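Hello, quick one for you while I still have it in my head. No rush at all, and the record is pasted right below.
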Amino acid sequence: MKDVGLLFNGEVIEFFLNFIIDSFQNTWKAFAWPAVVVQFAQPWGAIGLGLAFIVFPKYVKPHVEVWLFTDDESEETTEAK
C-alpha cells in the first residue's frame, strides 16, 4: 500500500513540473511569434504585422470592445438608477 502512495506522489510532482515547464514554453511562444512570422514570410510578414499594428486599434478594436463589454455598460447604468 505504501508503494501506491509513493507512485501517486511522484505523479503529482511530475504533473506540476510539466505544468510549470509548459507555462514557460507558452509564455516564450507568446512573446516570440512576431519574429517567427517575420522570418517565415519576408518581407510580407513584416508588412502584415505593421499594417495590423496600425489597422487593428483604429478599425477592429472598437467593434470588439463593444461586442465584449456591452453587458458591463448596461449593468453600470442599471445600478446607477
Notes: Residues 41-81 form one domain. The mean pLDDT is 84.
